[in-house]
Amino acid sequence: MSQTVNPVKNPSCEVNATGYYALSGTGGASTVARATVAPAGPGAGSAYARSTWTVANTAIGAGMTIGSSTLTGVERIDVVPGQLYQIGVWVRASVAKTLKLTAVVYSASATLVSSSDGPNTVVAANTWTRLTIANTPGAGGVRLVLLIEDFAAPFWANGNTLDVDGVIVWPGATLPDYSDPSTNPNMGWSGTAHASTSILFTPTVTLTQYAPDTLAGPRVEVLVQDLPPGTITITRFSDARSFPVRGGVKVASASGVTVLDVEVPEGITAGYQAQMFAPDGTPIGFSTTTATTMPITGIYISQPLDPTLFAKVNMDDDSAASLVRGFDGAVVYTDGATVGRWVGGRRKGLSGVILNMETSTVADADEIQSMFGTYSTDQLPVLCIRTPPGFGRIPRTLFLAVQDPEEIDRSVRFGGSLVAFALKGDEVLPPAPGLSKSLLRYNDTDLFYPTYSAIDAAYGTYLARDRDYSKAGYAP
What we know:
Layout lengths: L2 E4 L13 E4 L5 E7 L12 E8 L7 E4 L18 E9 L3 E10 L5 E6 L3 E3 L5 E7 L7 E8 L10 E11 L15 E3 L8 E4 L2 E7 L8 E7 L5 E8 L2 E4 L6 E2 L4 E5 L7 E9 L5 E4 L3 E4 L5 E5 L2 E10 L11 E6 L8 E7 L5 E7 L2 H10 L10 E5 L10 E5 L4 E4 L9 E9 L14 H7 L3 H7 L3 H5 L10
Antiparallel strand pairs: 1-14, 2-5, 3-4, 4-12, 5-11, 6-10, 6-12, 7-8, 7-9, 7-11, 13-14, 15-16, 16-20, 17-18, 17-19, 17-21, 21-22, 21-23, 24-25, 24-29, 25-28, 26-27, 28-32, 29-30, 30-32, 31-32
């Protein structure tokens, strides 16, 4: 998992100015309060902390303090010893100033550990300017306090103001633009909004291959973790096409999402990417793409809406020998024209594809018939057909609508087990990609473990239970 945390709990004062303190300077007096006079700092909301001087100071070193070495609530900024941090603070002064950002690190007992200064920065009057500094807390340094101070005359006068906004303490070598969960949908608060640390979610996609077994054909688990609140849709890219992964459409992100792609092609690269949506349905971004290549184990056909109905078949050499991708439309001749004009739509998918196949057992033949439905069970007349590279020029994962499946007895009447099928159909989109029959059910783990306490002990999270595919099919 990949998460980055800004430990500043009140980074932009959208609710109050807790954690921001007056640094009045020698002989001066000032107060700090939340202000909303537009504009706020870049990337932040509509508020910020404002220090207003009521008595002028007489020496350098006045400004504002952020954080506390002794308080334990919103005011405290927790850091990790040895971790490099990039620190950024937006400031605005009512008069031209030379300001400096200082990082002061304390131990858990509020003992000073270290202090480091950023550069003196000239800040034009009424202009938001970002002060920055890099800091690595030393051994025992777990509390951070930031000081914003002036280091050149003129000093703060009565009525002068200093505004502070967009405070970020970012782990790593790069300081990003300021953002928080109120402005960045890829972030979330660890607790109360504007009173807890903020987390940047960086989704990761992990793929695990599963060989064919008695449950289903070859498949790959797509595990997406470190997701912001909302939903995701997982897409597979392969064979110069893209398809939503079955069962991975608008899935609640929760603590992570696991989906089995039972339609993954064999022998070619398949890439997977998650698109994220906010709770209100607004698209908010994509994960990186992770790819895998499933080993070639044979030709498989299955019922898309029930992947437990599947069979490995032998395809005849004359299958898909002729391929047609036609157009809907016509050549139209206007009055007096000697040459017509084409009026029509886009090129269609494959039509009239003929696939001749054989099963080696009567049980497999029965399975194929079940894919089309039985006298008591209805199914869509659509098959998912997966062929390896080199077998014809059809898509490696082909969805074929077969209205009149034909079964041909090769040897059953003579006591054998060879059954053939002649399937003629048209290419279609995968039916209802948001629907999928789950291979792993809660009944499987409920039956495997004797008590709910044993289940809780075996799995630390619901996600861990949801992806323990070794228990799939345990319950009848």
